[in-house]
Amino acid sequence: MQPMSKARPTSGQGPSQRQLRVGELIRRTLSDVLNRGEIHDPELNAMSITVGEVSCSNDLKVATVYVMPLMGSVPVQDAIAALARNKAELRHRVVKGLTLKYAPDLRFRPDETFDRLDETRRLFSDPSVQRDLEAPGSDVSDTQE
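The structure assignment produced for this chain is given below.
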């Protein structure tokens, strides 16, 4: 009898529970640190930055952090530049709350979730899409019962 492998196949599957858990812990920690202004950079502390999501690589060595300045207070690229400048200190703060073998490298990217939501709303309000959704035999009427 073959011993069962603990490695998960990664083809076509989403992130593991561990990746999701670590990503959420990093997100919460970064949000708290930024909210309390604990970084020694007055320019960064003056910004209100929302950490929308953190996705971790399979080996948990890289964490991609999706951020957006609150209500467009500063350009997103300025916020990302300030975060990147303070990456070492932010990484140190994150690692204190985690029990990982390696401190993940933090990579900051703009959070485009709201842009995608606006585009989706725009598409659904298009008259031709509305017509297709209301057409007999469409799947939408079947799911609303």
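Interim note for the steering committee: The first strand starts at residue 49 and ends at 56. The CA atoms of residues 64 and 140 lie 35 Å apart.
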